[in-house]
Amino acid sequence: MSSLHPSEQPTHQNTQDEEETSMLDPAEAEEEIASDPDQPMDSDPEDDPTTAQEEIQLQNDSIAHFDGHKDSIFCIAQHPLYPTIVATGGGDDVGYIFDSTSPEKEKPVLPASYESTPQTTEREGIKALYKLEGHTDSVNAITFTLPKGEYVVSVGLDGRLRAYKDTSNAQTGRTWTFIAEAQEVEEINWLIPCPHPQYPNTVAFGANDGSVWVYTVSAEDETSPLTIVQAFYLHTASCTAGAWTPNGKMLATVSEDSSLYVWDVFSEAAAVRLAGAEGGQQNVVGLTAQDQRFAVEGGLFSVAVAPTGAFVVVGGAGGAVKVVGLPRIDAEPSVTKGAKGAGSTSKTGGGKRSGGPTGGNSTSASGQAGQILASLQAQNDSIETLAFSPAPLTLLAAGSVDGSIALFDTAHRFAVRRHIREAHEEFAVVKVEFVRNDQTGGWLLTSSGMDGVVRRFDTRGGTAAAGQGLVGEWRGHRGEGEGGGVLGFVQGGGGERIVTAGDE
Predict the structure, then answer these.
(1) Which DSSP letter does residue 439 get?
(2) Taking Cα atoms as reference points, which of 409, 402, 410 lies closest to residue 384?
(3) Closest Cα to residue 405, out of 453, 476, 475?
(4) Which helix (H) or strand (E) holds 21?
(5) Burial of 103 (0-12, 13-18, 19+ CB in 10 A)
(6) Which residues, in sequence order, are CB contacts of 150 under 8 Å at separation 6+?
(7) d(CA 328, CA 290)
(8) What is the distance in angstroms between the CA of the first residue and the CA of the last residue of the chain?
(9) Segments of 351-469 assigned E as strands
(10) Which distant-in-sequence residues (6+ apart) come within 8 Å of 342 by Cβ?
(11) Cα-based distances in Å from 83 to 49, 86, 103, 220, 490
């Protein structure tokens, strides 16, 4: 704060003259307003806290919430045997396991801000059963292993894979213990459990360098609780998504380089001398952008395998969808005992093996394996998510960044059954998944988007379905450009309960 020297100080007389000159004569005033010391000063509506609070008032349709994370929740998983046990991972570098059980059962469970009627008091959040610590960057994928959920595995942008064992009585998912971690890459993009019945507690993940890894988790093996089963290196850009065949014998992966590879992870295709799996080559299908019929400028971002295992579908930039035939391996799986160790590395074949099946009476049918069966495009922007309806239905759902969902009929040359153009208005569709419930017949489709809304559609009927088949929606997450959105959800247990992961 500056000060004036004595010679610069104005005189009292000068100040008084200036004040008298600037004063308004009361007789000249048209109206005199009495001052009120209690009257607040005028303020901009944007600065009014009451107004601001009204602007962020959200509809709340949930009956319970978990708010342990301090940043966006990037991933969510559900116990395969106990659907109320849920695991999450977020941008705060940690994960949580909690029981989503709530006092009311007639409504779906959706996170923090979800009530139809405003509440006068804040509802208490669900308490965590266990906190997953140890990552040094965002936890962006998490899963329970199959078939029993004996382990939780988390991966992150720090390149770490960390495994935790269920140590509760009868393995009900209520107490957990960290057992081991591994790090082979800089960043991990996705993680999925393997459904192969002869290879329990096995997971696969894809990395930013394009590599694909398969691990088996076993706490009983004290020397190597995390064992590398395979590692593949044929993608030349970030590996963006992966999907197992229903029997768990093959793994399909896609990349930003617009390539698709289907890996013979456990060497069962090679054991029956399936074309493409011999000579040490570990991929039974391989398509890249060098084939102009398959090229997708901008890359591939999603992949799903048909329930029959007959073909794989990939989605990419610009709304491109490609359908590719798969080889069939029809056999009882066989297992090599004591399959361990680093094994040999084959850069030519793209695989590093630690063992696998060596026998069995497998048979195979190549059919249209590796052939492009269809090229589809019903949407205008990237296909971020794909899902098949459970048999006997033959629907494929594709969710796009343009906010739409397209339904294709796989039994009728992939004809467009319905195009829900504003499924999530103009905001990206993040996930689509059919409800697996014998009573509903598998025709209900659940979706989430960056608009912060979860919706459910009845997929029966064609394009003339009333309201495009919308049967319900649940709101509460911030969205619509407000720094929110629903980044994932789980709906196991027949779809009666939905638990969502929010970007806010």
Answers:
(1) T
(2) 402
(3) 453
(4) helix 12-22
(5) exposed
(6) 165, 166, 171, 200, 201, 217
(7) 25
(8) 43
(9) 351-353, 363-365, 372-376, 383-388, 395-400, 405-409, 415-420, 423-426, 429-434, 444-449, 454-458
(10) 228, 352, 354
(11) 41, 7, 16, 26, 9
Q: What share of the chain is helix, strand, coil (3-state, %, to 5)?
A: 10, 35, 55
**Residue matched to tokens 């905001």:** 427
The secondary structure element, H or E, covering residue 51 is helix 49-55
Residue 18 in 3-state DSSP? helix
Query: How far apart are the C-alpha atoms of 274 and 25, rounded to whole Å?
Result: 104
177 vs 225: CA distance, rounded Å:
13
Are 63 and 104 in contact, with CB atoms under 8 Å apart?
yes
List the structure tokens of 383: 């296909």
DSSP helix/strand/coil, 271: helix
Phi, psi angles (nearest 5°) of residue 277: -110, 10
Query: What 3 state SS string does 320-340 have?
Result: CEEEEECCEEECCCCCCCCCC
pLDDT at 348: 35
Over the stretch 427-455, which tens digit does the pLDDT of each residue have? 999 999 999 887 777 899 999 999 989 99
Q: Which two tokens stand for residue 11?
A: 């005189």
Provide mean pLDDT across the span 364-392: 88
* Residue 162: HSE in the Cβ half-sphere, 13 Å Cα cutoff: 26
Contact 474, 454 (CB under 8 A): yes
How does strand 239-244 pair with strand 405-409? unpaired
What residues pair up with 115 in beta bridges, in sequence order?
none
Which residue is it, tokens 């029959």?
Answer: 308
* Confidence label for 62 from pLDDT (cuts 50, 70 and 90): confident
How far is 383 from 405, CA to CA, in rounded Å? Answer: 9
Residue with tokens 């739409």, as numbered in its chain:
404
Residues 235, 351: contact at Cβ < 8 Å? Answer: no
Distances (CA, A) of 8 to 3, 5, 11: 10, 5, 9
At 6 the pLDDT is 39
Query: Is 457:44 a contact under the CB 8 Å cutoff?
Result: no
- The model's pTM is 0.80
Question: How far is Cα 232 from Cα 350, in angstroms, rounded to an integer?
Answer: 5
Tens digit of each residue's pLDDT (9 = 90 or more) over 276-335: 554 557 899 999 999 999 999 999 999 999 999 999 999 999 999 999 999 988 644 444
Strands (E), 30-109: 73-78, 85-90, 95-99
Measured from the Cβ of residue 35, the count of other Cβ atoms closer than 10 Å reads: 6
Q: What is the pLDDT of residues 194-250, one digit of tens each?
A: 999 999 999 999 999 999 999 999 999 999 999 999 999 999 999 999 999 999 999
C-alpha dist (Å) from residue 175 to 85, 128, 135, 149, 220: 11, 11, 20, 12, 18
> Is residue 468 helix, strand or coil?
helix
Nearest-angstrom CA–CA distance, 78 and 152: 10
Residues comprising the chain, all counted? 504
